[in-house]
C-alpha cells in the first residue's frame, strides 16, 4: 500500500492553483467566440439558474444542506450582482425538490430548460438523479454542474461536453484511505459499499488502491433495508478496519449493523458519511472514533485566513452560523456551483449557454468547499489536495491531518 498520509502537507498544488487562477481567468477572456456552440436563451437582466435538489427522500440528508448553502451564496452575490458585459445581473435561482427520484429530476430539468429558460442547471446530490439530469442538459446544450459523486458523471467526455462535477474523485479518496490505513498499521480491510453508480465507483477505486489488503467486500441493499447480512459477510473476514462507502443515512445504519456483529475495530468513511444524520441518536456510539476523508472545508475557518478565497469562506461560514446555528456537515458544493457559473458568465461577458460552457472548462479556482481545476479534457472533480482526514470525537468531526 501507499505510504502514510497522516501529517503530510498536501497544500502545495492548491496554492499553485490559486496563484495561477488570475492568469488563466485573463487568458480565458480572450477565447475565440467561435468556440461557443449552443443556443442563446431569451433576453434578460438576470442570470437564471435551475436547481433540482433532494429535499425529501433518501437524499435529503445532504440535499437540505446544499439548499441552505445555495440560498446563502445567492443572497450574497445578489447584494452587488454579477457583472456580465455591460450589465450587473441578479441571479434568479429556481429551486425544485426532486424527492430523490431520478425520473422527477429529469422532468424538472426539462421544464427548467424549456419553460424557465435557464442559462445553467445544477443539482443531483445522488448519482442517479444527476445521471438523468445530465441527459437533458447534454441534449439541450445547457451547462450542468452535478452535485453528485460518481466518476462516470463526466465520462466519456465526448458525450459529456456540457457536464461538470464538483465532488472529489473516487480514486483520490481511495488513495487517501489506503495511506491512512497504512499509517495506522491496518493491514486487512473490509468494505461495505452502496449500490448504483456511486458505490460502484467507490469499490472499483478501493480495489485498485488497496490491492491485497482488501480481504472482503459486500454491497449494501437499498436504503431502509436490513444491512446485517452484508455486515456479517465482511466482519467474518476479520479485517482490521471496515470502510463504509455510502451516503447518509446509510452510513449510520451500516455502522450500527457492523457494531451489532461484534466488530470493535476501526471504521473509515468516504465523504458521503459527513452529515448530521451520521452523528445523531444511536448512530453516535457506533461511529465514535471513526475516520472520514472529506474536503478540508469541514474544519471551518481560521482568523489567520487571508486570501480572497479564505475571506469568502469565512464570510460564508459566518452567514451560515447566523442563519442555522452551527456550521457542520456536507461540503457546500452548491455554493461553489453557483459561483462557478457566475464566474463563467462574467468572464465570457455573456449568459449564452455555449459561452458559459466554454468558460467553465477553463476555470481554475478555489471555492468554499475546495479547489477546482477544470480543463477541456477534464470536467471534475475537486482537486485531491482539498481533502483531509477527520475523526469523530464526541459529536463532532475533528481534523487530524
User: Can you tell me the CATH class of the largest domain?
Assistant: Alpha Beta
**Strand-residue proportion:** 15-25%
**Average pLDDT, to the nearest integer?**
88
End-to-end distance: 19 Å
Spatial ordering of strands, largest sheet: 8-7-9-10-11-14-15
Cα gyration radius (Å): 21 Å
Question: Which percent bin holds the helix content?
Answer: 25-40%
Number of domains: 2
How would a crystallographer describe the biggest sheet? 7 strands, mixed
- Number of E strands: 15
Q: What is the CATH topology classification name of the largest domain?
A: Rossmann fold
State the CATH superfamily name of the largest domain: Response regulator
Low-confidence stretches: 1-14, 16-43
* Assigned CATH architecture of the largest domain: 3-Layer(aba) Sandwich
Overall geometric form = globular
Report on the structure:
With 401 residues, the chain is of the alpha/beta class. The chain has two domains: 31-167 and 303-369, 3-Layer(aba) Sandwich (Rossmann fold); 170-299 and 388-399, Rossmann fold. It is 39% helix and 18% strand. The protein contains twelve helices and 15 strands. The chain has helices spanning 12-29, 60-78, 102-114, 127-140, 170-183, 196-210, 228-235, 250-260, 283-287, 308-324, 333-348, 353-360; strands at residues 46-53, 82-84, 87-97, 120-123, 144-146, 163-165, 189-193, 214-219, 241-245, 266-269, 291-295, 364-366, 371-373, 387-393, 396-399. A seven-stranded mixed β-sheet has the order 8-7-9-10-11-14-15, sandwiched between helices. β2 (82-84) and β3 form a beta hairpin. α7 (228-235) packs across α8 and α11 (333-348) crosses α12. The radius of gyration is 21 Å and the shape is globular. The protein starts with 11 loop residues before the first helix and ends with a strand.
Amino acid at each position: 500500500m501507499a505510504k502514510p498520509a497522516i501529517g503530510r502537507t498536501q497544500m502545495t498544488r492548491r496554492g499553485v492553483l490559486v496563484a495561477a487562477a488570475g492568469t488563466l481567468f485573463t487568458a480565458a477572456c480572450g477565447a475565440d467566440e467561435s468556440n461557443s456552440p449552443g443556443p442563446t436563451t431569451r433576453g434578460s437582466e438576470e442570470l437564471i439558474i435551475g436547481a433540482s435538489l433532494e429535499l425529501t427522500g433518501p437524499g435529503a440528508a445532504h440535499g437540505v444542506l446544499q439548499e441552505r448553502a445555495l440560498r446563502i451564496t445567492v443572497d450574497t452575490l445578489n447584494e452587488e450582482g454579477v457583472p456580465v458585459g455591460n450589465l450587473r445581473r441578479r441571479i434568479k435561482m429556481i429551486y425544485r425538490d426532486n424527492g430523490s427520484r431520478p425520473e422527477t429530476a429529469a422532468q424538472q430539468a426539462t421544464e427548467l430548460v424549456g419553460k424557465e429558460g435557464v442559462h445553467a442547471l445544477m443539482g443531483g446530490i445522488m448519482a442517479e438523479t444527476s445521471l438523468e439530469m445530465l441527459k437533458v442538459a447534454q441534449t439541450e446544450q445547457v451547462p450542468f454542474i452535478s452535485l453528485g459523486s460518481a466518476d462516470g458523471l463526466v465520462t466519456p467526455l465526448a458525450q459529456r461536453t456540457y457536464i461538470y462535477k464538483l465532488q472529489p474523485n473516487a480514486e483520490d479518496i481511495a488513495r487517501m484511505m489506503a495511506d491512512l490505513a497504512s499509517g495506522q498499521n491496518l493491514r486487512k480491510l473490509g468494505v461495505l459499499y452502496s449500490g448504483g453508480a456511486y458505490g460502484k465507483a467507490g469499490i472499483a477505486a478501493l480495489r485498485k488502491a488497496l490491492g491485497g489488503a482488501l480481504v472482503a467486500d459486500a454491497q449494501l441493499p437499498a436504503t431502509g433495508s436490513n444491512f446485517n447480512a452484508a455486515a456479517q459477510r465482511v466482519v467474518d473476514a476479520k479485517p482490521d478496519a471496515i470502510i463504509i462507502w455510502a451516503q447518509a443515512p446509510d452510513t449510520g445504519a451500516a455502522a450500527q449493523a457492523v457494531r451489532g456483529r461484534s466488530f470493535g475495530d476501526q471504521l473509515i468513511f468516504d465523504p458521503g458519511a459527513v452529515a448530521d444524520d451520521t452523528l445523531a441518536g444511536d448512530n453516535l456510539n457506533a461511529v465514535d472514533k471513526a475516520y472520514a476523508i472529506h474536503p478540508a472545508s469541514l474544519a471551518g475557518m481560521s482568523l489567520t485566513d487571508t486570501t480572497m478565497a479564505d475571506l469568502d469562506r469565512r464570510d460564508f461560514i459566518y452567514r451560515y452560523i447566523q442563519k442555522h446555528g452551527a456550521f457542520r456537515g456536507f461540503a457546500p458544493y452548491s455554493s461553489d456551483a453557483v459561483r462557478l457559473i457566475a464566474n463563467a458568465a462574467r468572464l465570457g461577458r455573456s449568459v449564452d449557454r455555449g459561452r458559459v460552457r466554454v468558460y467553465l472548462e477553463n476555470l481554475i479556482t478555489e471555492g468554499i468547499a475546495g479547489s477546482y481545476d477544470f480543463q477541456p479534457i477534464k470536467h471534475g472533480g475537486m482537486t485531491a489536495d482539498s481533502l483531509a482526514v477527520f475523526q469523530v470525537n464526541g459529536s463532532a468531526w475533528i481534523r487530524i491531518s
